[in-house]
């Protein structure tokens, strides 16, 4: 019966719904004309502030408006943004002195959207905001290694680290306007709660990026207008619109009709239909994003290693890859990208699909099948809930398949999907608050293997992004050591050991590495999909319409 149910679920992959399209109005424009490009987001941001939101939707929505010191391009290279150059040991931008480290940034001349100059004081203010205990930042990792930010002049910021911090280039990805936000950061709406967390700026930012904020119509769209004073390449279009389209079938129809120009992270289930559209290019990008299942390790059932391991062994990831993701998403074995210098290929031999071994683990742990086949122990039923984002069809199909996989080994799985802000929001989102059993979603990593925010026990919310609530003394020690080691070979050894521990302890199940499908109307030029957490909007100032 399990295989019959599974077959019927997989058969459903080919079904697509349709809805009536609605045309958008676009002004005709050439490379420097008045056109507007519409890009789709499946989720609506919970805030236009990536200090307090780790939603992909928030990152995409803020990228056109905000600038950082350094960004990562589509070739996974660190390149200057507000900084005049990338500081390194070779160019003397980075100076090592014993255990300490100094990084010097020279700033390009730039202005905020209100005309005020961007200065080193804004760099220092950004660091101070991250360390402010009343500000609900997603993580303080790395920021807490900085002892001071000196500002010898308006265009120079000298960042003093009290210890060597290898992933230093991952900091200062967004610079905040001190003159706009300083009062909010210093004010508390109530004790321990900075006004910055609720600032009006979070819904209408003043940034220094290539586009200015124009309006946010809740549940529908966010619009932007070109910034003629941008310090870099001037925007080649009049504006952008982020259109919130939660349903993938609706997104497909709107791409086909021309209501949206860019359909991001398109559904794998629509692959053939997208390829058949004559005026659309489907970009297939091997991504640093990986689909995974988080276990809430504070749940008494999932605190048992045998239960976590059994779940991992019961899942046929290869079948999910082939049947749901058409083989485009490759099976994942760790949180590191296979092309990373720190990847551990040995983990590929571990935790392969083996439902019989899963049953044996549960038997040995005292979980015995009940009358309906679901296991019981000490009067407790081995029943769990899985949560993901609503509207993402491949995930919904995956959940249906997971129900069958786990039922085959005696575990009951129920589905409770929620909108993105309810899953990822702070402080009450399911992941952040710990009010979930299993969470199915994706992480986008950086080219640097540093993963301290995910696995170090000090990063358990509200302090960080260790949503699994995983605690392991050796992993704590290794993740901290990995940030202090500059030598690449030694760093690789550290992160390979972490991957081996994760495979053994299994606080989460790595599922699939994304091959991102971004479908773009051929009228749009200059689109260069980015596999890193910089996202596809990283070069939006170079987009234009033919």
Main attributes of the structure:
single chain; 546 residues; alpha+beta; D-Maltodextrin-Binding Protein, domain 2; Dipeptide-binding Protein, domain 1; Dipeptide-binding Protein, domain 3; 3 domains; seven-stranded mixed β-sheet; four-stranded mixed β-sheet; 15 helices; 24 strands; 22% strand; globular; disordered N terminus
Brief characterization of the structure:
The chain has 546 residues and is of the alpha+beta class. It has 3 domains: 161 residues, Periplasmic binding protein-like II (D-Maltodextrin-Binding Protein, domain 2, 3-Layer(aba) Sandwich); 115 residues, Dipeptide-binding Protein, domain 1; 229 residues, Dipeptide-binding Protein, Domain 3 (Dipeptide-binding Protein, domain 3). The chain is built from 15 helices and 24 strands.
């Amino acid at each position: 019966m399990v295989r019959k149910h599974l077959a019927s679920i997989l058969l459903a992959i080919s079904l697509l719904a349709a809805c009536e399209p609605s045309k958008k109005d676009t002004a005709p424009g050439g490379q420097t004309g008045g056109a507007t490009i519409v890009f789709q987001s499946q989720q609506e941001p919970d805030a236009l502030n990536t200090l307090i939101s780790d939603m992909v939707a928030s990152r995409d929505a803020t990228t056109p408006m905000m600038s950082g010191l350094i960004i990562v391009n589509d070739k996974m290279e660190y390149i200057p943004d507000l900084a005049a150059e990338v500081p390194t040991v070779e160019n003397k931008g980075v100076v090592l002195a014993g255990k300490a480290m100094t990084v010097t940034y020279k700033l390009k001349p730039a202005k905020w959207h209100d005309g005020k100059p961007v200065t080193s004081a804004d760099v220092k203010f950004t660091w101070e905001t991250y360390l402010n205990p009343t500000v609900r930042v997603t993580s303080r990792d790395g920021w807490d290694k900085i002892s001071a930010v000196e500002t010898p002049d308006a265009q120079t910021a000298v960042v003093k680290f009290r210890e060597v911090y290898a992933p230093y280039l991952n900091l200062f990805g967004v610079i905040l306007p001190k003159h706009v936000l300083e009062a909010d950061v210093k004010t508390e709406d109530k004790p321990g709660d900075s006004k910055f967390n609720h600032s009006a700026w979070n819904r209408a930012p003043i940034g220094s990026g290539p586009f200015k904020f124009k309006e946010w119509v809740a549940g529908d769209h966010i619009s932007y207008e070109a910034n003629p004073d941008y310090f870099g390449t001037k925007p080649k279009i009049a504006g952008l619109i982020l259109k919130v389209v939660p349903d993938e079938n609706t997104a497909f129809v709107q791409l086909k009709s021309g209501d949206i120009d860019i359909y991001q992270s398109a559904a794998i289930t629509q692959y053939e239909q997208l390829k058949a559209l004559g005026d659309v290019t489907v970009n297939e990008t091997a991504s640093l994003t990986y689909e995974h299942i988080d276990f809430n390790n504070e749940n008494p059932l999932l605190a048992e290693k045998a239960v976590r391991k059994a779940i991992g062994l019961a899942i046929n990831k290869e079948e999910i890859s082939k049947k749901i993701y058409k083989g485009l998403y490759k099976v994942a074995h760790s949180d590191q990208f296979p092309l990373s210098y720190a990847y551990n290929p040995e983990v590929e031999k571990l935790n392969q699909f083996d439902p019989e071994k899963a049953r044996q683990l549960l038997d040995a742990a005292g979980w015995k099948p009940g009358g309906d086949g679901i296991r019981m122990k000490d009067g407790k039923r081995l029943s769990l809930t899985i949560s993901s984002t609503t509207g993402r069809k491949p995930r919904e199909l995956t959940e249906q398949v997971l129900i069958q996989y786990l039922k085959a080994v005696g575990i009951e799985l129920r589905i409770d999907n929620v909108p993105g802000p309810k899953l990822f929001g702070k402080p009450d989102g399911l992941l952040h608050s710990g009010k979930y059993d299993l969470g199915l979603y994706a992480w986008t990593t950086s080219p640097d293997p540093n993963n301290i925010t995910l696995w170090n026990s000090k990063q358990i919310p509200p302090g960080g992004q260790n949503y699994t609530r995983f605690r392991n003394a050796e992993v704590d020690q290794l993740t901290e050591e990995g940030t202090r080691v500059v030598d690449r070979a030694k760093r690789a050894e550290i992160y390979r050991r972490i991957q081996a521990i994760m495979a053994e302890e299994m606080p989460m199940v790595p599922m699939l590495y994304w091959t991102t499908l971004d479908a773009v109307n051929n009228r749009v030029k200059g689109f260069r999909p980015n596999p890193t957490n910089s996202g596809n909007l990283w070069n939006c100032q170079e987009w234009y319409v033919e």
